[in-house]
């Protein structure tokens, strides 16, 4: 029962502030000011009692500035700290979570961090409100006390440091103010323990002295060696504890600016002015906002350092002087906000980390706070005096002035409140109703469709190698795609939807993680830009967080049907480190690899065709050489021994076996179907694969219709060899490729029918796209087997040209997205990650850069411009081009630094060479870069120059600066597509049967009813 009440209390305290504030709002439309991101100023006192402030009933200490703040805003009467001590309370404030959830509680007597040089602190995997706001474009700063740790394992790892927890700028104490920081004050840290240690040291010293005197006088016969050992022991004992406790002022009482120590020890007489100066300077530097400023006062913690201006001025002794000085500092910070005209666009909050410290005394003088009528104080777990604190909000024109709210609220409520105001995501461990009531803060969103208030099902459909020009709704009039066209008619069509890479493996890695492939090691610096084998060791790293992982944590049932192509194993056949099941998918059915010509016996090889031809030629040369030597030996023309001839023959045989054992069995090694970890077909039978994939997708929907579910249908269509069932063969006006596209469209229709049959249409977020553009070089004789990229130059594999990266993007959610809508703003496949994470109630990882942006505001018409200013177009790990969506301008600039050399010249593709290369002799480097304005020249047909474009140099300079800034965000990671990782490894080969005789068929004819 106690546990239930505890959970209920936490639930209501996290909601009430949002609910009650909502009640005071005027009718919709009356607060246009809420439509922007406000500046956020959070002011937190240290050890301040609720009874120390005038507006909370104190008539002896003057706090006019805090009182004025309350007069202009909302005062909370039941504002509760999550813990009655600094470190855990502040951890809860920063994360919105009880300290016990983050490990910031204690099971021993040390309930706060004791040393700046300790290894404990706020874990790096915790997501502070600063991280969320930083991701939303806020400049974030912390001025003052931190007390959440600095380093973990080494002096400069900064794992707990403010800059590792979302703050762009930090100035202040990494630790906490205490008596030890002032020479004239009695020690505060471990006073009892230090007294005992000093007593023990004196006892040891006296014992050594006694022994020495006794030895000199002949009273004892102990050797000098033993006495020396005792003396050394005593010295080491004393040195071991005094080296820490004797130098506390030097070890803990320091000031830092970001990672740099500025004072050691700190000069306490000037600390107040330094903190105030830094806070005001931060506001002035970032007045154009939005910014988050967390002013974490050292006041009113002992030793109550107070400047001459306030000493002896209050009616409550030194403590009162310190409180009044703190109030004056609050006033100066508010003045800085007013001076810059930011008052009406700034949410200001004032509180204390916990109640006053009743035991803080200097002789008979009280040096701690007053907690009003409430029993207890700092450090006392449950008594109200230790946890009930001031809570004041001000936001003119948005929050009602001079208002008192007497409902339970928590310091932890600040987290979801500011996250929402910044356009971020409410934390994962909040009840979904919390996020629902957050929406009510802004009247414009209170009328949102009911569907948004629940977790929708999420259906993601991705084609393989489909060109943007292959679909009717994108301008094709020769291939029929009625189902995809209907999806666009009922939803939103994106016309500048961009893949993060022009090739399968890296593009899909970016889609799954919301991050450029170069960040995860899925970008190649060699000629192999996609995974080559099921038995390779490369793949999507285990430490990457896919959207499937995020949604599964939120209670979604997650499934992947179709192509994976992100790797299987790392070191052992069954470690499954890269497998879909290890990346958040509850269920997987499909190809762990990708479809390719080698999967169909009558097709020319596709996997490393050029290399295979060379290897076969070398084998023939070796065989011919061996045969020549044998004939020469038999005819007596050569005198070589048969032993040498046999060695040559064996070498040739081993050479042939070594490469043919992999390439000669591609159909068996790579073309397999799996259900979770079990192989069901090896090799797969293409004539029934379409039916199997469709059956599995429909079955998943039927099994999970009570939801919520995530279904990622990753088609094998329309990748070569374009295997198409009899029903669609010869039916299109665009040959075999058109037949395959029309079959894929039919598959889309069947899946949408299954959604509608289960009455899930209105609460299902549906998305359709392709992983990249069509492959222009896919030909068989004179027959074109690849897609059409419309008016856009280039195609699959070409780093920067639009045809390889601009793809269809269609989203439908009846009642939430406007029907038959076209959005011509730059968006990315990576945007799906934060979008579905948000819809599922999850949160994107805060310990890494996520390049995607939440599309919901754009899709719902709340904003008109994409959040993407710059997009970076890589070919492998080589940056080929950058696009700049210039804000407040109609221009869409694109600069090409590197382009492929087409073959034959002027052909528009690299015909006869597979796909275009990323580097080497097959590319051209441009200096200055080729510059296009896609808003005027989407086909990239007319490069600009300084003579034709007055802004040429300005644009190139700005893009160069963006590239530099982007590269500063990249960190070295293991390369998943290194030559070693992509190499075929027999010990990693999935095998149904006894290796190398791998064969099985567990599907039978079960698929045919699906067609």
TrEMBL record:
Names of the cofactor(s): Ca(2+)
One Gene Ontology cellular component: intracellular organelle lumen
SUPFAM superfamilies registered for this protein in UniProt: Alkaline phosphatase-like
Signal peptide annotation: 1-32
Residues annotated as domain Sulfatase N-terminal: 38-423, 456-841
Keyword Transmembrane helix found: yes
InterPro entries xrefs: Alkaline_phosphatase_core_sf, Sulfatase, Sulfatase_CS, Sulfatase_N
Pfam families, sorted: Sulfatase, Sulfatase_C
Source superkingdom: Eukaryota
Keywords, alphabetical: Calcium, Hydrolase, Membrane, Metal-binding, Signal, Transmembrane, Transmembrane helix
Chain segments annotated as transmembrane: 197-214, 226-248, 615-632, 644-666
Chain segments annotated as coiled-coil in the UniProt record: none
One function term, GO molecular function aspect: arylsulfatase activity
Keyword Signal: yes
Family: Belongs to the sulfatase family.
Identification of the protein by name: Sulfatase N-terminal domain-containing protein
Organism of origin: Mauremys mutica (yellowpond turtle)
Organism phylogeny: Eukaryota, Metazoa, Chordata, Craniata, Vertebrata
């Amino acid at each position: 029962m106690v546990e239930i009440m505890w959970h209920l209390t936490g639930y209501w305290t996290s909601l009430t502030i949002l609910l009650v504030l909502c009640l005071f709002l005027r009718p919709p439309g009356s607060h246009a000011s809420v439509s922007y991101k406000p500046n956020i100023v959070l002011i937190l006192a240290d050890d301040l009692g609720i009874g120390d402030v005038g507006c909370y009933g104190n008539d002896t200490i003057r706090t006019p500035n805090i009182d004025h703040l309350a007069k202009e805003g909302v005062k909370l009467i039941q504002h509760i700290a999550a813990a009655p001590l600094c470190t855990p309370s502040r951890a809860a404030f920063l994360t919105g979570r009880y300290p016990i959830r983050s490990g910031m509680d204690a099971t021993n007597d040390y309930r706060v961090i004791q040393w700046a040089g300790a290894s404990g602190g706020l874990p790096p995997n915790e997501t502070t409100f600063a991280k969320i706001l930083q991701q939303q474009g806020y400049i974030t700063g912390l001025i003052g006390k931190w007390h959440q740790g600095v380093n973990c394992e080494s002096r400069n790892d900064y794992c707990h440091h403010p800059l590792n927890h979302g703050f762009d700028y930090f100035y202040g104490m990494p630790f906490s103010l205490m008596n030890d920081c002032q020479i004239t004050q009695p020690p505060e840290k471990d006073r009892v323990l230090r007294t005992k240690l000093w007593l023990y040291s004196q006892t040891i010293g006296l014992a050594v002295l006694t022994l020495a005197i006794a030895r000199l006088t002949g009273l004892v016969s102990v050797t000098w060696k033993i006495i020396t050992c005792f003396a050394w022991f005593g010295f080491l004992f004393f040195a071991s504890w005094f080296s820490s406790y004797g130098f506390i002022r030097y070890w803990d009482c320091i000031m830092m600016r970001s990672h740099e120590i500025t004072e050691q020890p700190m000069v306490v007489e000037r600390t107040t002015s330094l903190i105030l100066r830094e806070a005001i300077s931060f506001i002035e530097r970032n007045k154009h906002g939005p910014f988050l400023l967390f002013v974490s006062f050292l006041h009113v913690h002992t030793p109550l350092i107070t400047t001459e201006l306030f000493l002896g001025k209050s009616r409550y002794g030194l403590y009162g002087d310190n409180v009044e000085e703190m109030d004056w500092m609050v006033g100066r910070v508010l003045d800085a906000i007013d001076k810059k005209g930011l008052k009406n666009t700034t949410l200001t909050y004032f509180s204390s980390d916990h109640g006053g410290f009743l035991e803080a005394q200097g002789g008979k003088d009280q040096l701690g706070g007053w907690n009003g009528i409430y029993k207890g104080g700092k450090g006392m777990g449950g008594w109200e005096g230790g946890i009930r604190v001031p809570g004041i909000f001000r936001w003119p024109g948005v929050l009602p002035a001079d208002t008192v709210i007497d409902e339970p609220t928590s310091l932890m409520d600040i987290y979801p409140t500011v996250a929402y105001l910044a356009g971020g995501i409410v934390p994962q461990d909040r009840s979904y109703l919390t996020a629902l009531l957050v929406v009510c803060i802004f009247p414009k969103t209170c009328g949102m469709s009911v569907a948004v208030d629940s977790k929708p099902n999420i259906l993601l459909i991705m084609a393989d190698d489909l060109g943007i020009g292959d679909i009717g709704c994108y301008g094709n009039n020769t291939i029929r795609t009625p189902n995809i066209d209907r999806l666009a008619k009922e939803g939103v069509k994106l016309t500048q939807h961009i893949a993060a890479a022009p090739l399968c493996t890296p593009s899909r890695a970016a889609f799954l993680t919301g991050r450029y492939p170069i960040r995860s090691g899925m970008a190649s610096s060699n000629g192999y830009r996609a995974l080559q084998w099921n038995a390779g060791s490369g793949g999507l790293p285990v430490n990457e967080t896919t959207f499937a992982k995020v949604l599964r944590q939120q209670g979604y049932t997650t499934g992947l049907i179709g192509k994976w192509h992100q790797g299987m194993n790392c070191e052992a056949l069954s470690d499954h480190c890269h497998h879909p099941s290890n990346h958040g998918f509850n269920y997987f059915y499909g190809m762990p690899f990708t479809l390719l010509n080698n999967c169909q016996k009558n097709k020319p090889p596709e996997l490393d065709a050029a290399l295979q031809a060379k290897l076969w030629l070398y084998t023939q040369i070796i065989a011919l050489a061996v045969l020549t030597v044998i004939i020469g030996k038999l005819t007596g023309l050569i005198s070589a021994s048969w032993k040498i001839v046999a060695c040559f023959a064996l070498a040739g045989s081993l050479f042939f076996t070594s490469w043919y054992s992999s390439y000669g069995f591609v159909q068996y090694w790579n073309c397999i179907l799996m259900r979770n970890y079990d192989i069901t077909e090896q090799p797969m039978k293409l004539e029934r694969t379409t039916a199997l994939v469709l059956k599995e997708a429909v079955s998943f929907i039927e099994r999970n219709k009570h939801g919520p579910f995530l279904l990622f249908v990753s088609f094998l269509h329309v990748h070569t060899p374009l295997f198409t069932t009899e029903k669609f063969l010869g039916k299109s006006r665009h040959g075999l490729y058109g037949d395959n596209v029309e079959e894929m469209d039919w598959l889309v229709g069947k899946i949408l029918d299954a959604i509608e049959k289960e009455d899930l249409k209105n609460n299902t977020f549906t998305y359709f796209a392709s992983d990249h553009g069509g492959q222009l070089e896919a030909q068989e004789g004179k027959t074109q087997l690849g897609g059409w990229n419309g008016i856009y130059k280039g195609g699959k594999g070409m780093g920067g040209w639009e045809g390889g990266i601009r793809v269809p993007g269609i989203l439908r959610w009846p009642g939430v997205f406007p029907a038959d809508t076209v959005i011509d703003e730059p968006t990315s496949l990576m945007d799906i990650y934060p979008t579905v994470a948000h819809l599922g109630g999850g949160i994107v990882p805060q310990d890494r850069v996520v390049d995607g942006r939440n599309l919901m505001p754009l899709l719902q018409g709340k904003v008109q411009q994409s959040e993407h200013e710059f997009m970076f177009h890589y070919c492998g790990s080589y940056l080929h081009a950058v696009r700049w969506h210039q804000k407040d301008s109609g221009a869409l600039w694109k600069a090409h630094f590197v382009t492929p050399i087409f073959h034959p010249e002027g052909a528009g593709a690299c015909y006869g060479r597979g796909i275009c290369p990323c580097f080497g002799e097959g590319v051209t480097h441009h200096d200055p870069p080729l510059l296009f304005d896609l808003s005027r020249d989407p086909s990239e047909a007319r490069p600009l120059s300084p003579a034709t474009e007055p802004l040429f140099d300005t644009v190139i300079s700005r893009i160069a600066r963006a590239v530099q800034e982007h590269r500063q965000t990249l960190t070295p990671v293991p390369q998943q597509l290194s030559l070693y990782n992509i190499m075929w490894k027999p010990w990693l080969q999935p095998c149904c049967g006894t290796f190398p005789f791998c064969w099985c068929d567990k599907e039978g004819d079960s698929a045919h009813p699906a067609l």
